[in-house]
Amino acid sequence: MNKVFTTFAALVFLLCAGAVKGQISEPVELVNPLMGTDSKPSLSNGNTYPAIALPWGMNFWMPQTGKMGSGWAYQYSADKIRGFKQTHQPSPWMNDYGQFALMPITGKLRFEEDDRASWFSHKAEVAKPYYYQVYLADHDVVTEIAPTERAARFRFTFPRTDSAYVVLDALDKGSYVKLLPQENKIVGYTTRNSGGVPENFRNYFVLQFDKPFASTNIYKDKELVTNVLEFQGNHAGAVVGFKTRKGEQVNVRVASSFISPEQAELNLKEIGTDDFEAVKQKAKTAWNKELSRIQIEGGTPDQQRTFYSCLYRSLLFPRKFYELDAAGNVVHYSPYNGQVLPGYLYTDTGFWDTFRSLFPFLNLMYPSVNAQMQAGLVNAYKEGGWLPEWASPGYRNVMVGNNSASVVADAYLKGGRGYDINTLYEALVHGANNAGPLEAVGRAGVQYYNKLGYVPYDVKLNENAARTLEYAYDDFAIYQLAKALHKPAKEVNLYAKRSQNYRNLFDKQTGLMRGKNQDGKFQAPFNPFKWGDAFTEGNSWHYTWSVFHDVQGLMNLMGGPKPFVAALDTVFTLAPVFDASYYGSVIHEIREMQIAHMGNYAHGNQPIQHMIYLYNYAGQPWKTQYWVRETMNRLYLPTPDGYCGDEDNGQTSAWYVFSALGFYPVCPATDQYVLGAPLFKKATLRLENGKEIVFNAPANSDANRYIRDVAVNGQPYAHNWLSNNELQKGATVDFDMAATPNTSRGTKVEDAPYSFSKAKK
């Protein structure tokens, strides 16, 4: 009986998704916004929240289970909702900015977050990218949300009562509210943020109700007052009351602006005269449009749900931080200088995470959007003097590297145009040769790096080896862009030479990367399992592979393909041992590696995510094929605990999307993607230029994970990489899949992907 029921349930799922025959008609219905929400500070299964938003929307909405100011604003394990928050939070570790919350209540008038909170159940919760609904048990109210890019519609269904209320919480740290009863409106602003903003930062909001207020109240911190209509102070809020019939719906249109109250009113026009169902349908259509750019066929229901849930996460960040003025012009409030200026701006991303696969994915599938992002980087540089490495919304002092170089270079080299690339190149050179006002802007330790060829271990600059390795790759990206822009040979050669600085940290005795002191001696004692210290959120076994641009050069240092492959194998066969002494406790990234049962492979964090693909450089591509499938099978599920670490603004999701399609951008700023093995029987990528890339793998199955042969456009293909330029012309790639490895395909030296050491300079 159970087997029959399971088969029937799977059939119903596929019928609903339109996937039994042909392509999936509404991929948004396969997305689970709750994927990754079952997380906590000590263990991340994604550290996500259900973002109710449009692709790259300026504002997201979320149910708030956490306390005001907590980065863990929605946790799947919670059982109470405190409000419905407009959020711009990229991750719990970065926290939020410009947030405010609404909460419907009934009965006794109360406004503080614990008093107004209500029990809820996931059984009475519907979460989709374009729509959210939940039943608030303590208030007998159903809340629904449908978003636009800068506005949203709320629909509250109340019971019969003369004490129905909606609480607006503008939060503490400086806020303002004003009631306009004759217009059924509330206006105000919040200044709540976690850094990265100028002193004049405000998020102005407007709430337009469709029902007259039966009562009005303002609250000043913890004091509720009825005889005033506005308040400016530390913590402002408002409570408006209604008398409702059973099942009566109170609708609220909400919008906000970082520019002005007048601009917030303009942003409210995104809704116009659309009722709730129209806003919901338009949001659904917007998501289906973007998600349908990639059509998959075959695979299990869970694999399809995981794929589109990851694709959804890949289309959220970086978010729009620009608005349209009364004339329809693109304008933005600058978090870099506090001025309102023309042009695009995007924010809420950390390049240390997202240069690896998220931005390459945008370059492949959504280049026009990424061109706007590049134009926004031009503005960021002009307004702040530096390119942001982590923006939320302005400069944030977190993580290492100078990976804006990769983001800028890859976009241009993959065909991005329509923005000021010369100013961006100037910005890259400036950032590569100067320490910024923050350690995470420009290059900390640049004076040592440019003189010695590495950032020393003993100069009181943490994570020095990680910085060196990332700077070397970033120099390669600048070198590639300099060539494309026909810069002087002396300049091109400088960055080519610096790209080889990774060699200065390779320790032949251990076969690993290692911190080095100013005097040229390696740091001692050395524990390759020590997290942090010379490395960033990882150990030497993780960071040794951070030579994206010259894998052959690294292989040569290790003694050739055989010891190189043996070292790769060792990552998986080692016990998950670690040394957490640098942090003083076991950080969540360590715990996630430990429990994954994949040795010392730490997929939950970014530095090692490309490592699986490196077998292709050493003539053993079948090992890549095996481990890619293992990682997808073991570490990703379309469930609240569905990730294996922080999702990180689309990076970990984009890894899955690329890997499920069968290839991965090991080295952004080159033309190549490295082959893995496809997950589905067929995938069709609809490019912006009107061309299609079709991946066929009809024999694909759980057992048939190995590539026996590949054909591109009908011709046999032996290489372990695909050319972006060729794919952009439209291509059909046929994979002959088998249950056993083909140990003769892709084994020749010429089959290996790009490495600087092998390329013609």
Features:
nine-stranded antiparallel β-sheet, seven-stranded antiparallel β-sheet, 28% helix, 36 strands, alpha+beta
Percent helix, as a range, is 25-40%
Which class of secondary structure composition applies to the elements? alpha+beta
The oligomerization state is single chain
Number of strands: 36
- The poorly predicted ranges are 1-21
Report mean pLDDT, rounded to a whole number: 96
Task: For the record, give the distance between the C-alpha atoms at the N and C termini, rounded to a whole number.
Answer: 66 Å
Overall geometric form: globular
Question: What summary fits the major beta sheet?
Answer: 9 strands, antiparallel
With helices defined by DSSP (H or I, 4 residues minimum), what is the helix count?
20
From the alpha-carbon coordinates, what is the Rg to the nearest angstrom? 26 Å
Strand order of the largest sheet: 6-7-8-9-18-13-12-11-16
- Beta-strand level of the residues, as a percent range? 15-25%
Structure overview:
The longest helix is centred in the middle third of the chain and has 21 residues, at 464-484. The strands form nine sheets. Strands 6-7-8-9-18-13-12-11-16 form a nine-stranded antiparallel β-sheet. A seven-stranded antiparallel β-sheet has the order 1-3-4-10-17-14-15, with no helix packed on it. A six-stranded mixed β-sheet has the order 19-31-32-36-33-34, with helices on one face. It has 761 residues and is an alpha+beta fold. A hairpin with a 2-residue loop joins β33 and β34. The chain has 20 helices and 36 strands. α7 crosses α8, α8 (367-384) packs across α10 and α12 runs antiparallel to α13. 28% of the residues lie in helices and 22% in strands.
